[in-house]
Amino acid sequence: MPPDRAWKCPPGLDRAARTTEQDRAAGGRHSRLVDLGNGRVSCASVELKVYAKTRRIRAYIRWSDNGKYPTKYVGEVDGRTRRQNLIQAWTLVCDKQLLRRPAEPSNSWASTPAVRSVMRANRGKDTRPELALRSAIRAHGLHYRVDMQPLPDIRRRADVVFVGPRVAVFCDGCYWHGCPEHYRPAQRNSDFWSSKIAGNKMRDRETDRLLIDAGWQVIRVWEHDNLEAAAGEIANAVRARR
Fold first, then answer.
1. 18 and 8 in contact (C-beta within 8 Å)?
2. pLDDT interval class at 185 (50, 70, 90)
């Protein structure tokens, strides 16, 4: 059976947090609109279910319409986390054109609405692992800057930066940065996602090289790492360079 973290809503998640979760996965509230006709729209949500017979996670789209809650089957998803599966499900919703979509701006860089929605859902900062890592670093009595360009002339941002000792810390997500232990290639739109992840890995290596050449120490932490231990290593590196 899929693990609970791949499909179940975290306990204690209030309505506002659930709304935010859906908005981020869909790429924004505007991407969740269902056309009800006669100028009426409703905001849809994705629901994930597991069936014992198939042992697979199924995604459904549902919305409110005059006290009724229509539901449509979207497809199967296979991510390792609930967030990944919500993003996959909303991608399928886009592909199947189940929802009303606002007109794309003329200068949109995305090749399809599905790609645009998924990329919007990629949260750039303040992820849970980042917040936990920063909390663990603070416990060592260290002060730092967050989401900063270590090199002003190069548009590459580090998650945690120690300016004086020149230590740049990156907290990398297993999926988006191609973790050798946990990354699993997407089964849908595989060419796009494989190219995207490969590009991310190349960019990471180039960023490391640029920083090292400029005299910085680069520390990369995977989201699955022991963050307490990682914070200790970071503290040792900062103090040594001071």
1. no
2. confident
Q: Which two tokens stand for residue 31?
A: 């991407």
For residue 170 the two structure tokens come to: 């990156």
**DSSP code of residue 81:** S
pTM listed for this prediction: 0.53
Beta strands 217-222 and 167-172: pairing type?
parallel
Q: How many CB atoms lie within 10 A of CB 21?
A: 18
Q: Tell me how crowded residue 10 is: count the other CB atoms within 10 A of its CB.
A: 11
**CA dist., res. 103 & res. 101, Å (int):** 6
Q: How far apart are CA 64 and CA 6, in angstroms?
A: 25
> Cα–Cα distance between 180 and 172 in angstroms, integer?
12
Which residues have a Cβ under 8 Å from the Cβ of 186 and sit 6 or more positions away?
A: 88, 193, 194
Q: Is the dihedral of CA 131, 137, 139, 142 positive or negative?
A: negative
Best CA proximity match to 7, nearest among 53, 73, 76: 76
Q: 120-133: per-residue pLDDT in tens?
A: 545 556 778 898 99
**What type of residue is 144?**
Y
List beta partners, residue 113: none
- Give 83-122 pLDDT, tens digit per residue: 999 999 998 888 787 776 544 444 444 444 444 544 554 5
Residue pair 97/119 in contact (Cβ under 8 Å)? The answer is no
Strand partners for 218: 168
- List, for residues 59-73, the tens digit of each pLDDT value: 999 999 888 999 999
